[in-house]
Amino acid sequence: MSLVKISEVTEKFGISSRTLRYYEQVGLLRSERPPFEKHRFYDSDNINRLQQILVLRKMQISIKDILRIYESQDMETLVHSFVKRMEEIDDEISTLSQLKAFVSDFLNAMTAHGITHISALPLLYEKAQKEFLSASKQDLSMETLNTISDKLAKPLEMDIVTLPPMLMITSIRTDSRRSEIESFWDWLSANQIPFGKPGSRTMFEFQSGEDIVIMQKLPGQISDMEKCNESTKAFPFEYREFTGGLFAVSSTYTDEDLGALQYRMLQSFDDNPSFEVDFLHNGCLRHEALIEAVFSPENNRERINIYVPVRQRKPNFVDYSEFEITECITYEEIERANPILQEYGVDFHKITPIYDPHFTVLENGEAEFIAWISERKLDTNVAVRLPFRVDMEFIAEEESEEYLWGTTEGSLWFSHGGCTYTMNAENYADKALKEHALSFQQPVLGNAFSYPEIGNIPHDRYNKLTWIVGEKHFAVILNGEVRFCGVSFPYMNMDLHLHTPETIIIGTNGQGKKRFRSIKISQLKTSAKTNTIQGALKMNVKQSNNTLPDLRQIIHPEYGQNYWFNGCASYLMECLDERDFDYWFFAGLTGENFTQIFSKNYFRGSGVVDYRLSEKGNHHVIEEIFEKCGYASTFVPLKQILSNREMYVQMLIAYIDKGIPVILNDYGNNPHNRFGWGVLVGYADYGKTLLYMGGDGTVPDSISVEDLLPKGYVDQDDHCHGWLFIGEKQESKDLAGIYRERILSLPQLLTYEGENYCFGVKAFHAWADHIEKGYFEKITPEEFDNWGMHTVYVCCLATNSGGCKGFLDKALALNPNMTFISSIIELYRKTGHYWNDDNGTDLEALGGGFNVTLEALQNKSKRKKIADKLRAFADCMDGVSALIEQFKAK
């Protein structure tokens, strides 16, 4: 069977690789990648099918109909598709015939009635409809005429442009707050402020309520903001800072129907993958539609541009073709193809440490860096835009490079514009799981790639590492050896010169020490772009998308804010302007920052809330949390949402339009996350796509409703998955009382034990017994789930050891008589020492912390010491309960 490379197919048939990829996605074609090949190939059957598809598409048979043809494999479906297309053509002919008949009748009527002036045309239209239109044309109302006109309208041509920020003076008077164009015109002339030339993008008009407003850019000597504050006080007209940004622009003549053009512009964005209309959370445009005069090719007709504010959609990398890995290429060839425009040497003394890593500049001029955990990093304070290059000369000391913490242990990484580039990634504590991978996210699109065994860093010697994120190559070079080189990445075809500069942040992970001899960051040259038209755009006058205005990440692991539900709840309250109910409040109220967890059977989540929701019918737990804050709420189980999906999506849209997020617990078939907590913060395509924030992400992710709420989807376990809608505030709660009640109820929480799980003291003892009695002896390396079987519990105790202090401090401040809280703080601080700072006898030192291995859990001597240490944690929790009970007994 002969195979044809995809590049040969695109050249032979004059079709783009993206179109081929789309045909594969919808199921019309199938390619294959033979073993040891970098490229995809098509066999003869798929080549023949592609030829058939191209013939059908040239006859404008829709993809949907083509799919139906191949699904049925009979001539009847094919004939039906042809008949349907002929009917569409007949409809187009009929529309033209209707318009022709309408024009003909009007021409005859004008002649018969002696019409000599255009002002009589509307009256003639009304009379004609009643008197002389033939019976077959009686349905030609003005609405029908509008429909015909829309059907026959020329394709809409638009560009996407960037308008710069400008200080503008408007025709709105400061005293009356009304637009007075005549006097504004006179004032501009009297003050010798030059009028904006047609097409210069310095003078616009727009509609504000009932007024037409003129907006003129102020000249440089006035727009200097340091001088402007005094000079503008005397202005009789309002000035404003125009923020600029992206706008869609289309041209027309003033004698055309401007409202119809704007309507079509607003209708032209719904299915556009790159741009959408820029609506604010209240449903209004970011800025009113602007009109600008431009030079006209016709002396007797005035031409204008109409500007509508738009914004970029977040790219979806599945719409883009795959890149190719290039072998047998030298470092010198890559350098020549990606020339440097400007090189910046990083001054170690000007580096800004983030989250307190160990960082010092040594006497010999080198910089020493230990991050401990990945969130601790270094800001180089050097910003570059794509494409760019980073060169580091460094040494990694082998004697301190132990793999203890997790997937990036021993790594060296940097980030730029939200994408991370890592050497020596994916190294776990278990030696069998070390991958020494090279990993990165593609610029702009953000999709992740990982290549094991090519990211290993030699230790105890100086290394020269180069990352070239170029326009021609994406390459990684270590000590002159090309470890990876890719070409034809989708980002390379984008307008890279439009992207803003981003700072380079450098990080590592774990206890491994890195010493830098030099760091250089280079701006690479960008090819000139001459085609500025972005293509046809589609949008709708009816608001089809909306996003909450103040988005932020939900959790901050670097601050110990690890529990996702509490981050979601605090964000929801923040949107309701309830500032007292922050993350630490909810982490204490739920007990997640106080209570150890342990499951007796299977992984149930990361904290108390997940555990309680792991049992069917427990969704009231969430409602009770918000009830303590004085709010009504409704947690709708996923099963109920799926039974009336459209209604709940519309309900979500209504909440977003009011500026209120919705909490969700379950991501359906989301490829990014199997399930978890998040907040729904927006929608697009009339709710077909939903936007959510989860974890420590700083920008929302999107997911289709079909994936989030798939038809036929059922929970795989008893977890109470669903959405939380907040209701009205029922009463104002006493904050001191909430904190007091939580503290006094801790003993009940710290001693809870049920059939499936336990908390606090019980959890520590059950966990210790689980280990010491040999549960892990029967576990094979393939079955060992480090996180679900052990490390999640370590994360819980580590987080709680310091994470509860904020709640306890606030409780004591609000309830000064509860002096015993100071002793509780000391007991939790003591658990912090037991975890990672106890003179060589702490959990980490014993090998039972984040650095745990299956070997340690299977070794009788080691696991005995680990279990005994866990029982010491239990003693501290017993002490917490005893202090509270003594206070309650007084």
CATH topology of the largest domain: Jelly Rolls
The CATH class name of the largest domain reads Mainly Beta
Radius of gyration (Å):
33 Å
End-to-end distance, in Å? 88 Å
CATH architectural label of the largest domain: Sandwich
Mean pLDDT comes to: 82
Level of helix content? 25-40%
Number of helical elements:
27
Number of domains: 6
Q: How would you sum up the global shape?
A: globular
Q: Strand count, sense and closure of the main sheet?
A: 9 strands, antiparallel
> Which stretches are low in confidence, meaning pLDDT under 50 for 5 or more residues running?
132-140, 223-232, 530-542, 670-675
Structural class: alpha+beta
**What is the percentage of strand-forming residues?**
15-25%
Assembly form of the protein:
single chain
Total DSSP E strands: 36
